[in-house]
Amino acid sequence: MDATANGEKGLHARVLESLGPAITAGDHPPGTVLRTDELAERFDVSRTVIREAVRVLESMHLVASRRRVGVTVRPTEEWNVYDPRVIGWRLAGRDRPRQLRSLTVLRSAVEPVAAGLAARHATPAQCAALTEHAMGMVATSRGQQLDAYLVHDTAFHAVVLSASGNEMFARLAEVVAAVLTGRTQHHVMFTDPDPAAVTLHVQVAEAIRTGDAARAEALTRQITAGAMAELDVLAP
Amino acid sequence: MDATANGEKGLHARVLESLGPAITAGDHPPGTVLRTDELAERFDVSRTVIREAVRVLESMHLVASRRRVGVTVRPTEEWNVYDPRVIGWRLAGRDRPRQLRSLTVLRSAVEPVAAGLAARHATPAQCAALTEHAMGMVATSRGQQLDAYLVHDTAFHAVVLSASGNEMFARLAEVVAAVLTGRTQHHVMFTDPDPAAVTLHVQVAEAIRTGDAARAEALTRQITAGAMAELDVLAP
DNA sequence: CCTCGAAACTTCGTATACAGAACGTCTCGT
DNA sequence: ACGAGACGTTCTGTATACGAAGTTTCGAGG
């Protein structure tokens, strides 16, 4: 929603969108020191703007600002890897494979449990949305309609995560969306989705609708297992 | 001007530590409009400092800053609930029960998978640490040594998450620590830990050491199931 | 009377200048 | 050689001015 509408979003945001990816991509390896004056000159903005950008970077634990020494890039292990912006930057950068793998593993842990909870908590409206998107996936699963398929796939998983009733799960929707989008971008228009996966989605929708938590969880586990298997092809 | 050594940290951090909890606790309900001038006066700092704090709040998606209208508090569903600081604030505030429940559910999804991965990836050093902490838990499980027990318990789970080899899992260590600490604080020195749970930890350490992923996962699932069961007692 | 549009006002956004504090480094004295 | 203190660099905070943008209001025209 808010992300990357780079028209004129504020100077500090532009600095952030340039500095952040540079750091996460490793252009400034951990330990590198950046000085605010230098940055101000490099981006041709005032120090005030730089300081605001640095504050945000600091809140992501990407950098630490200390007097006399400068703004130092923190080691990778300390980064706030759950920050959607950090995820986006890493996904766009050079360790995209690693990030994709991490996120897929996270998916494989969270989504089955979320599906199980959804089977117990989903509202009728959510169940309806689920079956609708599952049908949509079926309808678009053949004949080079990957974009339309992706929309339904993303929406399906978002509804499941939301229906789980757990806010932490719900907030992973955009992460899952990023993973699914990434996969589609690599399939680039050549192979239709796996029919077995489509069937699984339909069955998950049904299991959630009928309140069969164990079945919803097991089926979703099969879906994520498939995603894990695909990973070896996608990520080197 | 007051020139007293008011705080060790920066001014903006102090504003943040006051504004953040206020927002997450609901003192400023979603939709509330805050003006930078007003905040500057309220905290007796310059607008620059306020704006830096607001930037960080904005990066957490707690607020949105718009011209002419002010800084508006965003709806709860949009908050970055994975930001450690947001978690901490909510854990300290009035919807602590909800947060505790969310985190425990997240634990129950992630930790079993992490344990399974740890069984395949753990280094000998990590295995040693695991058995050490498991033994420590055994040693401190009786006789009102809850503090020492908590240290070993926390360390145990941190090692498991780290040994999974997944950076996203590893970063959940502090979250798990927060949950475990919260639990201990409520048990307040009256009941010793459940012996069955202690045994499970020892068995998990063994399963990971012997590379039995399925067993490590199943056992950890029992541990988290226990935590979920406890939850009904702890969180209203 | 209603609608459309422009001006004005309010608030955030950016730039600049300066004072203060902290931390590394360099030098000097023992 | 080694430690303590002075120094300089760089971040931190403050104050102020101007610009931009949106909301609101007021007025003109239909």
TrEMBL record, chains A, B:
SMART domains recorded: FCD, HTH_GNTR
HTH gntR-type domain sequence ranges: 9-76
Pfam family, one: FCD
Keywords linked to the UniProt accession: DNA-binding, Transcription, Transcription regulation
Record-linked CDD domains: WHTH_GntR (cd07377)
PANTHER family: GNTR FAMILY REGULATORY PROTEIN, TRANSCRIPTIONAL REGULATOR, GNTR FAMILY
Protein name per Swiss-Prot or TrEMBL: FCD domain-containing protein
Organism: Streptomyces lunalinharesii
